[in-house]
Amino acid sequence: MSLSGMGGGLDEGLDQEPPIWAIFGDLMTGLVGVFVLLLVWSLGFQLELSQTLKRETQLREVAEQRRQALEAALAEPLASGRVTLRDGRIGISGSVLFSLNSAELQPEGRALLHSLRAPLQVYLIDSDQLLMVSGFTDDLPIQQGNLHFSDNWELSAQRALTVTRALIDEGMPPNRVFAAAFGAQQPVAANTDSDSRSQNRRVEMAPVPMVKRAASAPAPLSSAAAL
């Protein structure tokens, strides 16, 4: 056999293309692999979504139980008018808690705070919030010669502190509650008569977000170290 003949045979063997079924098989294998990956990802996503929805449903159920417990504790005082509820703020009439120009808690007011402490505490801890206790007065100035308070700011501050301490005495964790004073500012009714002024003499309790300390923030100095 001549070299030219042999060369022609080799060229024919090298130029031969792979069969079409082999190419089709490789393509189908690749498509199946992609389909399997998409299926696994879809199943994983659906499982994660299902777990997330389940957790959110459980959180909503717990929040609803907290709300119902708080509403149950507020139902009777709300119906009697001793307590109001506006935009999430619980307002207690000053006449229920204190006598006029006094910061000494009355028995009726202490009993009311006793009934509210437990559901409030559960709500605050579960929602990781603080309770701000705010004191308010009417616009009438403190009478001269008053031996206890120089002005409405001082009266409202002392009333807020009295309620705060009463809640702590009832079992509220001290790190969950604090006092604030507003004096005659932010009235809920015009100070035009005795009825409207009585509405402004009040104490409000409102949940507020807890401030989170940054992980990198240095710890505060103790009193000994500060000295």
Automatic annotation (TrEMBL):
The chain crosses the membrane at residues 20-45. Residues 83-211 form the OmpA-like domain. Keywords: Membrane, Transmembrane, Transmembrane helix. PANTHER family: LIPOPROTEIN YIAD-RELATED, STATOR ELEMENT OF FLAGELLAR MOTOR COMPLEX. This is OmpA family protein.
